Amino acid sequence: MQHADNMHVNDKEIPKELTIPKLFYEKANSYGSQKVAMREKEFGIWRPITWQQYFDNVKHIALGLVSLGLEDGDKVSMIGDNRPEGLWAEMAALCARGTGVWLFQDSLIDEVKYIVDHSDTKFLFGEGQEEVDKALSIYNECPKLQKIIWDDPKGMRNYHQDYLISLKELIARGQDLDQQQPNLFKDLVYKGHGDEVALLFYTSGTTSLPKGALLSHHNMLTMGKHLMMVDPCHANDDYVSYLPFAWIGEQMMSISCGLQIGYTINFPEEPETSQENIREIGPHVMFAPPRMYEQMTRSVQVKYLDATWSKRKFYELASKIGYHVADLRFNKKPVSFHWKVLEWFAYAMVQKKLKDHLGLSRVRNAYTGGAAMGPDHFRFFHAMGVNLKQIYGQTEVAGISVVHRKGDIKFDTVGKPIPGTDVKITEDGEIITRSPSVFLGYYKNEEATQEALRDGWLHSDDKGFIDDDGHLVVFDRTKDVFTLRDGRPFSPQYLETRLKFSPYIKDSWVIGDKRDYISAVLCIDYSVVGKWADEKKLNYTSYPELSQMPEVYDLVQKQIKQANQDLPEAARIHKFTNLYKELDPDDDELTRTRKLRRKFVEKRYEDIVNALYADNDTVHIDTTIKYEDGREAHIKTDLSIRMLEN
What we know:
Layout: E1 3-8, H1 20-31, E2 36-42, E3 45-50, H2 51-68, E4 75-79, H3 84-95, E5 99-103, H4 109-118, E6 121-126, H5 129-138, E7 147-150, E8 164-166, H6 167-180, H7 184-191, E9 197-202, E10 212-216, H8 217-230, E11 238-240, H9 248-261, E12 264-267, H10 274-281, E13 285-288, H11 290-306, H12 309-330, H13 337-358, E14 365-368, H14 375-383, E15 388-392, E16 402-403, E17 416-417, E18 422-426, E19 430-434, E20 441-442, H15 446-452, E21 453-454, E22 457-466, E23 472-477, E24 482-483, E25 489-490, H16 492-499, E26 505-511, E27 518-524, H17 526-535, H18 543-547, H19 550-564, E28 573-578, H20 598-604, H21 606-612, E29 618-626, E30 632-640, E31 642-643
Parallel strand pairs: 2-12, 4-5, 4-6, 6-7, 7-8, 11-12, 13-14, 14-15, 27-28
Antiparallel strand pairs: 1-18, 2-3, 9-10, 10-20, 15-16, 16-17, 18-19, 19-22, 21-22, 22-23, 24-25, 26-27, 28-31, 29-30
Helix pairs in contact: 1-2, 1-3, 1-9, 2-3, 2-6, 8-9, 12-13, 12-14
């Protein structure tokens, strides 16, 4: 194979014998009761948990699993919100020489059944009644599943199945075994080797059923070490764990980096309070998908719309200064004393309060990954003085392979490879990677493994190139790249992210591969547009009704015209419609990490797509939508189709 470009950084290897449990054992013994390992907010109070408490819980859960019959390589699944018990269960499974499997806490029953059955899960940890109910409904269809372990007693009083066991009871069993065999836990931990499987991680599956990626201890630890070589963290740092553990990005920060550095992991009270809890902690490092930063941007934009005239003027002035200074730094130009004074003024008057409001006051490095982020959002945070960096990676490289360096940030790239990583571009433009973090293969899927791992390289199926500064530019998934009517390739993600910079647009789906023009299906932000409509004295009763109001179409059209600016004529949106509902992972329209399932939505909304490429000015919808609680609603409505004048 010939390669158009090559990037390489040399680095020392992590010892092959080192495992996550060995590192955990050494850290816990080193810190003991002197250092807080994690905090959880309960009943309005942050509850500290020392490394000694962390260690004791993990040891007794691990030995409890052994007492139930856990053997080398057995799969242990976890489902629930981010909480200490979830991390204890994962670490215990690894210490007992099992393999950890995480499921998204909002997974539907079919998704839970597929992963539990496909992974051959033997023990399943569920947080409380909701997760236990899901497990009970699939228990008889998953022959390898033996025990379901729960830890939140609320609502569990009348559950008496013999295959249910409480976490409290499991810990008691582990304590008994520890008294009988006091050296057993240490022996189990030190039996491990870095090349053994640590995690079976299911990919989001944008086009097909999720694939289970097998990641070794060495994969996870080398990736964490190499990222920390680029952006060192410190033992006294705080990190807030609020992203699902079923997402590799959270494992990357909580396990791969967190365990090596020993920083304190903070768990929010509830997923809904995570933003408020982030503000209370003020983390030093932050990692989030673009969706989180988009929400932050929207919250600032909404505050601006609601502010008094004088506050708006101060914000506009601070933003102007911030954007100018950020652009100087992006272009690696010196910031003069005059602009440094103005930058300090902008920080003191506006940015300090704004950063504190978002929980970003102490952040040294903020990362985003998992999907593309538009340049508008990127510049927005840098103008505020937040050191936001794009990363590139995938589950199959234990999370990350490429990241921006401080002082060398280009918002249309994802930066340079982390140490120990090779990145090349094949003749047909595919990004391929080689590093000690590349996974072992897919569980029970040799064909997919051979497709992904060829000639010692991981094939990403992403299109990209390496620019003159050695930065990797990710174009899009190979299957998602459009061919415009003038023959040029085009990434729909780029335009979709530009559209989402508007506070009024929550989701966007751009269509137009090999077609005469580009069109878009948009989802309004119901709360923001609803507030706007209230101020305009417009009456509406529901999302479908609000989305189809002519005034709302006028509002959205303005946002599209802004996104169309600076784009070549063939890449501009020509027609659009507002969807009658939000795109939803529960409807299979988005993955659990909120990536658009393009093929699925094209098939589901085929009538809308056809109408956008016909002479129609409306499209009739007659469908049933399902709510999260199982309720169904019949929707009969007409969607307007609006044409833009270029």
